[in-house]
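Table S2 (continued). Query chain:
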Amino acid sequence: MKLKKSSIEAVEEAKPASGGAFIAARHRNPVAEVAAQQAAGAEIFGGVCAILATVVLVIITALLYVNWDAIKSA
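Corresponding output:
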């Protein structure tokens, strides 16, 4: 079975686009950009909660260390 010359020529390798990580404005997703801006408030809330949890953990650890004799006798 012989292949036609046109079918062989039609298969060409795709050349990678140069330009690195640049994405043209027409290829950007505006919904993703809006979601990224709105997520900043949630990240601040999460950070504050993490700091408060760390402070509570330090306080509990200090209380357990100070009252170790009372805990051992229980």
